[in-house]
From TrEMBL:
Protein name: 3-hydroxyacyl-CoA dehydrogenase family protein
Coiled-coil stretches: none
Organismal lineage: Bacteria, Bacillati, Actinomycetota, Actinomycetes, Pseudonocardiales
Domain 3-hydroxyacyl-CoA dehydrogenase NAD binding: 8-185
Organism the protein comes from: Actinomycetospora atypica
Domain 3-hydroxyacyl-CoA dehydrogenase C-terminal stretches: 188-284
Similarity-based family: Belongs to the 3-hydroxyacyl-CoA dehydrogenase family.
Superkingdom of origin organism: Bacteria
Span covered, complete protein: 1 to 293 of 592
Length: 293
């Protein structure tokens, strides 16, 4: 019989984690959202509040539904509150050791049948799964930024994931109005393998002064119908996140096209991480803003 997901957990309330909480809560599911510090928890809650307020102002969500959505979200710093959830999605930063620690802590707290999902975009789900006490109940559940808006969810199965775990998480994603796809465990999965090869090449063209940022972005928007050009998209994703994804893809593939363009590291060192710091390839009105100045 298919599992029911009345209550789920999300660990890590950064851009992706907060968006994932919003998706579950909008779908009528109770969410326990865990962060490490009170400050990070408050920031996560604010992200969810402002994103849902935006959805209301755009006519995507009724005010009453927003209130109900927010009531379904419990933000806490106590991982112990995840004892009775059917599924936990981790969305902490892209470091294998950190994600391993999170799953080890969850193994102690959660029931043996709880499914562990990772929102990682490039780390190996297999490597993560064998470090838990439940490798067959570990899947990748990779959302796209902004998670409340993008319909895609990549479900990553390993050689030991139980088929019914994949089936049930797929049904859950569909019930949330998402369009899930299933794939195997290779860095970048489907979308990022294709997307980041392209983004990295665009950064290379910019770095070599082959074309300016506006021309590069305009080419893909007006020539190919992409909603954003590659450099604007890099700013949305975050240059640090993009770099980590490319590095992991390069580590696994040794394909030169995945070797991060050198300017990325320089921009990261200088704190130009994109929208979140107010400056990346473009400069924004303030950190977190989408308004280019
Ligand atoms: N809930 C529901 N709907 C929402 C919402 C919310 N919280 N917030 C915004 N929306 C809706 C808006 O109402 C709007 O809908 P409409 O077009 O029907 O009016 C739509 O979402 C777009 O929102 P905005 O008007 O605020 O913004 P834009 O029109 O400028 O679009 C964008 C912004 C959605 C980011 C669009 O430019 C886009 O799709 N860009 C490409 C993003 C992309 O490629 N993402 C993937 C990145 S890779 C990744 O995530 C992988 C990871 O591993 C790094």
């Amino acid at each position: 019989m298919a599992r029911e997901f009345a209550r789920v957990g999300v660990v890590g309330l950064g851009t992706m984690g907060a968006g994932i909480v919003e998706v579950f809560a909008k779908g009528g599911i109770e969410v326990v959202a865990v962060e490490v510090t009170e400050a990070a928890a408050t920031h996560g809650r604010e992200t969810i509040e402002s994103s849902t307020a935006r959805a209301v102002s755009r006519g995507k969500l009724a005010e009453d539904d927003r209130t109900a959505l927010l009531e379904r979200v419990r933000v806490t710093t106590d991982m112990g509150e995840l004892a009775d959830v059917a599924l936990v999605v981790e969305a902490v930063p892209e470091r294998l050791e950190l994600k391993t620690e999170v799953f080890a802590a969850l193994d102690k707290v959660c029931a043996p049948e709880t499914i562990f999902a990772s929102n990682t975009s490039s780390l190996s789900i297999t490597e993560l799964s064998v470090r838990t006490q439940r490798p067959s109940k570990v899947v990748g559940m990779h959302f796209f930024n902004p998670a409340p808006v993008q319909p895609l969810v990549e479900l990553v199965r390993t050689v030991v994931t139980e088929p019914d775990v994949v089936d049930d998480v797929r049904a859950l994603a569909e019930s949330l109005g998402k369009s899930p796809v299933v794939c195997g465990d290779r860095a970048g999965f489907i979308a990022n393998q294709l997307l980041f090869t392209y983004l990295n090449q665009a950064v290379g063209m910019f770095e070599s002064h082959y074309a300016g940022r506006e021309d590069l972005d305009a080419a893909m928007r007006f020539g190919c119908g992409y909603p954003m050009g590659p450099l604007a998209l890099m700013d949305l994703i975050g240059l640090d996140t993009a770099y980590e994804i490319l590095e992991e893809m390069y580590r696994q593939s040794r394909n030169q096209r995945h070797a991060p363009a050198p300017v990325l590291k320089q921009m990261i060192t200088a704190g130009l991480l994109g929208r979140k710091t107010g400056r990346g390839f473009y400069t924004y009105a303030e950190p977190g803003s989408s308004q280019v100045v």
